[in-house]
Design a protein that fits this description.
A: mainly alpha; globular; B: MetI-like fold; disordered N terminus
Chain lengths: ~280, ~325
């Protein structure tokens, strides 16, 4: 009986080693391939056999010295993601907080609106929004790219859930001390909501960093491309830009994986809320 | 930061006390008004970014939109929809949806149950390893999978099938293999997130239930059927619903493999058709009509699914 049990344990542990290998293999193979000559990579794709003598830093020296475009995209992505995090956390947290701690007319209707936004696929709204951006001259601007992400329904929902657990007695005590409602939020309640801010910063940052379809419509000039859009332009069967593409792909995900290793807890909380339970 | 806060407090406190008569300040600080100020950005953004485009999408779907001239044309856009490209896109999106739902619900349940059991060690490591692909942007995933499924016989996918004695395949040029790449890509990226959902559900099951089931002599399958499954049901329904919706919305997987134009439309999806007609061909009215059809399709299928599970539940109990 006992022997049987250790055997199943072995089988399942080996199974998970295989599963983990399958999950990590594509990224590992990308990283290894980024040291292979780009012409050879284009000809053969990602291969099992590695010619160790061929490996070099040439793709990276190329991207650091010959690809100013890539760094412009990197900068755009950094700016857009940071601004999206700051703005969307500021607005979404206030909305979620107000919906949790105050009683006011229309509160339930507002909550219904949050759920409606979560349910309507963005692709359906895309064309009218695109037309709107053209009409108000926000095509090819940072603001145009960020706008749909700024008041994020998932973040509002998450902040609301979190704020429902806040101690409201503190609010009354602060009011007696003469603190304004805004003071209560910014000085007392918001600091208490800090873990939810971390989780949502990661969710919003990741969404913005990886966002594809909307920036694809809104951005038109090469110097304003974000990383995903810029890299996608290099994804051609005939392209001779595989050096920038492969090294660039690695450098697009590396910072995220490093952040993940340090802030795993918040990543998990953030992404698990990514699609909200109805 | 702390200093700033302290300064603010010093300033605001006397201000409120001194100007008690200041009606404007009092108005903006009353508990009746404050919540509306807090939610104001949301109301504005809901109106501009959701309500307006929803209504506008429906209106546009009845229009012919040319630069500087818009004309109502009744149901003509809808009549035009039902052509060969649309059926191709509908079939592709539906097949993709069915396959991803099947893979991304069943396998994560099994993995989550094993991770939740005492049988597997290094749980945190395995959970993280499964989760990391979710951090990858679709374009990077596209770079990887295009090179893994490259045409060359030396590329990994062809090496693997070669090991089983098959000839090399031009993965990007066959309908079945193109679908396979898309499904594998999506499964790779989202497996870990779904495992997390199921793990959270499994951790809510009281351990005593398993113990009492064991005392009643239940075997492994019976425990799964009568203890695990009923508890997981809400999460299964949730994950299935988001996978159905996500499946019908597929676009990016196709775009990064074929840059929007697949040979013989083997990778054309409903959103891809919307993008092609609405943006590339600049036929916004027609694109909007495709969007409305997509919205209806998602609503109808999700509601049918939810009704089915609800009815199933009533019959079961």
């Amino acid at each position: 009986m006992k022997k049987n049990n250790t055997l199943t344990k072995w089988i399942f542990n080996i199974l998970f080693i295989v599963v983990a290998f399958i999950a990590l293999f594509p990224l590992l193979s990308l990283i290894i391939s980024s040291f292979r000559p780009s012409s050879e990579l284009m000809r053969n794709g990602i291969t099992f056999s590695i010619n160790w003598n061929e490996l070099s830093l040439s793709n990276y020296t190329h991207i650091f010295t010959q690809s100013p475009d890539y760094w412009a995209w990197y900068g755009n992505s950094l700016i857009i993601s940071s601004l999206t995090i700051v703005l969307s956390l500021f607005f979404s947290s206030m909305v979620g907080y107000a919906m949790a701690v105050y009683d006011f007319k229309g509160k339930n209707l507002l909550f219904l609106c949050v759920l409606v936004i979560i349910m309507i696929p963005f692709e359906v709204l895309m064309l009218p929004l695109y037309q709107l951006m053209i009409d108000v001259n926000l095509i090819n601007t940072y603001i145009g790219v960020m706008l749909p992400l700024i008041v994020a329904p998932t973040a509002v929902f998450f902040f609301r859930q979190y704020a429902l657990g806040l101690p409201t007695e503190l609010m009354d005590a602060a009011r007696i001390d003469g603190c304004t409602e805004y003071g209560i939020y910014f000085k007392i309640m918001a600091p208490l909501m800090l873990p939810s801010f971390s989780a949502m910063a990661i969710l919003q940052g990741l969404n913005s960093w990886n966002n594809f379809l909307w920036p694809l419509l809104v951005i038109r000039s090469n110097d304003l491309f974000t990383l995903p859009i810029g890299l996608a332009t290099l994804l051609t069967p005939y392209g001779n830009n595989y050096d920038t593409l492969i090294a660039g792909a690695v450098m697009t995900i590396l910072p995220i994986i490093v952040l993940f290793i340090f802030f795993q807890r918040y990543f998990v909380a953030g992404l698990a809320s990514g699609s909200v339970k109805g | 930061m702390a200093e700033l806060n302290a300064n603010n407090r010093k300033n605001t406190l006397p201000l409120v006390k001194e100007k008690k008569g200041n009606k404007v300040l009092k108005f903006f600080n009353s508990q009746k008004v404050v919540p509306y100020i807090f939610v104001f950005p949301f109301i504005v953004s809901f109106a501009i970014l959701t309500l307006y485009p929803t209504i506008q999408a429906i209106i546009m779907s009845f229009q012919r939109i040319l630069p500087g001239q818009v004309e109502f044309i009744g149901f003509q856009n809808y009549e035009r929809i039902f052509n060969q490209a649309f059926y191709k896109a509908l079939t592709n999106s539906t097949v993709y949806m069915l396959l991803t739902v099947l893979i991304l619900v069943t396998i994560p349940i099994i993995l989550a149950m094993l991770l939740d059991s005492k049988l597997v060690r290094f749980k945190t490591f395995f959970r993280s390893a499964l989760f990391i692909p979710a951090l990858t942007s679709i374009v990077v995933a596209g770079v990887i999978f295009r090179l893994v499924f490259a045409e060359s016989e030396n590329a990994i996918a062809n090496q693997i099938i070669g090991f089983f004695g098959f000839e090399p395949v031009s993965w990007q040029f066959n309908a079945w293999s193109g679908m396979l790449i898309m499904v594998i890509m999506a499964s790779w990226r989202w497996m870990g997130v779904n495992v997390l959902y199921f793990l959270a559900g499994l951790q809510n099951i009281p351990k005593e239930l398993y113990e009492s089931a064991e005392m009643d002599g239940a075997n492994l399958f019976q425990k799964f059927r009568h203890v695990t499954l009923p508890f997981l049901k809400p999460i299964i329904i949730f994950v299935t619903t988001i996978s159905i919706i996500g499946g019908f919305r597929v676009f990016e997987e196709s775009y990064v493999i074929w840059e929007g134009n697949s040979p013989g439309n083997i990778g054309l999806t409903l959103v891809g058709l919307l993008y092609q007609q609405g943006i590339q061909q600049n036929d916004m009215g027609f694109g909007a009509a495709i969007g409305v059809v997509l919205l209806l399709l998602i609503f109808v299928v999700s509601i049918i699914y939810l009704l089915m599970t609800g009815a199933f539940k009533r019959g079961d109990e």
